[in-house]
Amino acid sequence: MHCFKQWLGGRAFALALPALALSGAVCAQDIKLPGTLTLTAYDTGSSGFNMAIAVGKMFKDKHGTDMRVLPAGNDVARLAPLRANRAQASAMGIGSFFAQEGVFEFASKEWGPQPLRLMLSSTDCNAVSLAVTKDVGVKEVKDLKGKRVGVVVGSPALNQNAFAVLAFAGLSTADVKLVEFSSYGAMWKGIVNNEVDAAIASTISGQAKEAETSPRGIFYPQTPSADKAGWARINKLAPYYVPHKTTCGPGLSAQAPAEIPSYPYPIFMAYASQPSDLVYSITKSMIVNYASYKDGAPGATGLELSRQNLSWVLPYHEGAVKAFREAGVWKPEHDAHNQKLVKRQDTLAGAWAGFNKANPPEDKDSFRKAWSTARSDALKKAGFDIIIE
After folding, report:
1. How many whole angstroms separate alpha carbon 243 and alpha carbon 250?
2. Computed from CA positions of residues 319, 322, 326, 331, in that sequence, does the dihedral angle turn out positive or negative?
3. Integer distance in angstroms from the first to the last C-alpha of the chain?
4. Tens digit of pLDDT for each residue in 205-235?
5. DSSP states of 14-42 as a string?
6. What pTM was estimated for this model as a whole?
7. Interstrand relation of 267-271 and 89-92 (parallel, antiparallel or unpaired)
8. Residue ranges of domains in the chain, CATH in brackets
9. Which of 39, 221, 305, 348 is the most buried (most CB within 10 A)?
């Protein structure tokens, strides 16, 4: 029996113990990982970093592969080692989407749209939204007017998420006091040190837990799905966000859930140029060895195969697609969606190449505005939604 069929959901093991040894042997032969892998992630203590460490331990235990996890304070710093081929993959956030689109910090001469590909991502009991300290009198998102909201230089994912949550209540950046920090970790130190009142984080991150036990405390304001207008405002800025019944995090449980915006995090991804065999082996190992790391860090259970959104906003790497096909979950509709997303990336790459050949402005702001126009025109011409202008 093939190891993937043996795995399905991790629940077939008890029913098929005699075949387990053979299944493991087949899996080990199919998976070929190098002696060392390098992965980038959010700062030390973040839930994404912790999950990457748990997966790395599994790679070591199952394949003898040492995985170095490099923490980085912003999206540009997380992607730079991948682009330079000093790292093979990253446990990214939604900055992956912004990099694909060539917007925000990636709308620069040094970057532009990036051909990124998914492997696996985590959707669990947690969410990724604005946390607010309990000492500032905020009960709902609308109460954040006039309060201090943290932003991270060079991290459009964190910042755009914060702005999208504010938009739920019709608030803009002009309605709050933005406080800049050099990194995600520094921003959360700012929460504890009373330098800021609200900041983006996963509800299960180490930083959120630290802030919860601090004298200030934190909570996550709700964004009820019943508020259609509020959610329309969120999705105008963040089309990847969905209402999520969140049951883990500060003050949250199965008995006391909250509707909070979320999306998969972390997003294990690589550049399209990474060898298919390597990405296949990484993805396949994470699928068949799920039971070995799912309890290794909060949120790691969200990497289960059955929780993957195979028709999301980023295309999957061909190596990951091969693993999904073998697992029996990749359908023709997923293939069609993936090809459309790859075509979108190709359209953006073509627009970027043409834009740079046309002597774009040297000034950063003028460059960004000119690229935004060229990007929008190319997407419209190809029949794609612009999404972020």
Report:
1. 18
2. positive
3. 50
4. 889 999 999 999 999 999 999 999 999 999 8
5. GG-GGGHHHHHHHHHHH----SEEEEEES
6. 0.79
7. antiparallel
8. 31-122+265-339 (3.40.190.10), 128-257 (3.40.190.10)
9. 39
